[in-house]
Amino acid sequence: MSVRHFLSESDLTGDEFRAVIEAAIDIKKQWKSGKTRDTLRNRTLAMIFEKASTRTRTSFEAGMVQLGGHAINLSPNDSQLSRGEPITDTSRVMSEMVDAVMLRTNSHATQQEFASVSRIPVINGLSDRLHPCQLLADIQTCVELRGDVKGARIAWIGPGNNMCNSFINTAQLLDFTLAIACPDALRPDENLAGQHASHVEFCDTAATACQNADVVVTDVWASMGEEQDAAQYAELLRPYQVNQALLKQASKDAIFLHCLPAHRGEEVTAEVIDGPQSAVWQEAGNRLHAQKALLEFLLL
Ligand code: CP
Ligand code: NVA
Questions:
Q1: CATH number at residue 118
Q2: Do residues 179 and 276 both lie within one domain?
Q3: How many CB atoms lie within 10 A of CB 177?
C-alpha cells in the first residue's frame, strides 16, 4: 500500500478521522492511569519548523517519547535548508533515515512538494492554508465534553485563516455545521468553502453565528506571517471579539475553543478564555494524545 500523509483533514475519511479520535481518547486514558506504551519503539520522527511553535513542538516530541520512540528537531536555520538545499532533496534524505516527518511551513505548497517524493508519512504541523493536527485535538475535546459532533453547530468567529479552512474541511468530513462570522475582506478560501457549502453557513454577525452553537471557536486576528497586516485586521475584526455577551448567544452548555496562543482583549476577553466554558487547556493537552493516535495510525 502506498504511504499515507496527513497534509489535510481530507487525507482521512470520516471513519478514519473518528477512529483516530477514539484511539486518542483511549491512549489518553491509558497514559493518565499510568500505563506505558511502546508501539513506536526505535522509530524516529523528524520535525522541521519554518515558524515558531510551543504546542506542536512539545506535543510531537513528548508524544514520540511516550510511545517509546524519538523526535529530532531540524531548525531550518541550522540545517542545510537555510543554505538552499532543495526541499525535495531533504525529503528524499529523510526517507532514508527516519520513519515520519512533521513540517510547519510558511507555504502549503512546500508541504506538497516535500510529500510528493517522500516514502514515509508527512504530517502537516501547520501551513498558511491548514492546521489539521489542531483539528484532531479540537474534535477530541468536543467529543470528550459534548459527545459526537455529528449534527452539532460550531461557530467560527474571526478571520478566514488556516484554522477556519481546517474547520471547513472537517465539517463535511464529520457532518457538523460550521457557522462562520468573519469580515468580507477576510473570508476563507472561496473554493474550499464552495466545495463544502452543504456544511458551511456564512452569517452576517458574530451573534447570528453563535445562536444555539454547541462550540464557539476563534483564533488570533493576525496569523504568523501576517504581522504587517495586524493593524488593518484588528480594525476589521473588532466586532468579532468573543466576549461574555457573545458567548451568551450560544447554547448554555457551549464550550469555547482557541488553538492558542491567544491575545486577551483582542479576539477573546479574559473573562471568556479564563472562564468556566473555556476548554482551551484540555484542547491544548489533547494535541499530545491526538498526535500519538495519528502517529500510530500512519506508522503501524
Ligand atoms: N496551536 C498551536 O499549533 O500552537 P503552537 O504554534 O505553539 O505550536
Ligand atoms: N492561525 C494561527 C494559528 C497558530 C497556531 C497562525 O497561523 O499563526
A1: 3.40.50.1370
A2: yes
A3: 17
pTM: 0.98
287 is catalytic: yes
* Helices marked H in 33-116: 55-66, 87-97, 108-116
259 lines ligand 1 (CB under 6 A): yes
Q: Is 99 a catalytic residue?
A: no
| Domain range enclosing 145 | 132-283
**Domain shared by 154 and 26, yes or no:** no
Cell digits of residue 63: 508524544
Task: Compute the mean pLDDT over every residue in the chain, rounded to the nearest whole number.
Answer: 98
32-57 in b/e form (b: 16+ CB < 10 A) is eeeeeeeebeebbbbbbbbbebebbb
Closest-CA residue, ligand 1 atom 4, reads 55
Q: Which three cell numbers stand for residue 14?
A: 470520516
Instruction: Give pLDDT tens digits for 183-228.
Output: 999 999 999 999 999 999 999 999 999 999 999 999 999 999 999 9
Is 71 a residue whose pLDDT tops 70? Answer: yes
CB–CB of 45/67 below 8 Å? no
Cα 1 to middle of ligand 1, angstroms: 32
- One domain for residues 222 and 200: yes
User: Best substitution site from 220, 233, 237, 280 to test ligand 2's pocket, by max atoms within 8 Å of Cβ?
Assistant: 220
Would residue 146 show up in a list of annotated catalytic residues for this protein?
A: no
User: In the prediction, which pLDDT does 1 show?
Assistant: 61
CB 287 within 8 A of CB 133: yes
Does any domain span residue 109?
A: yes
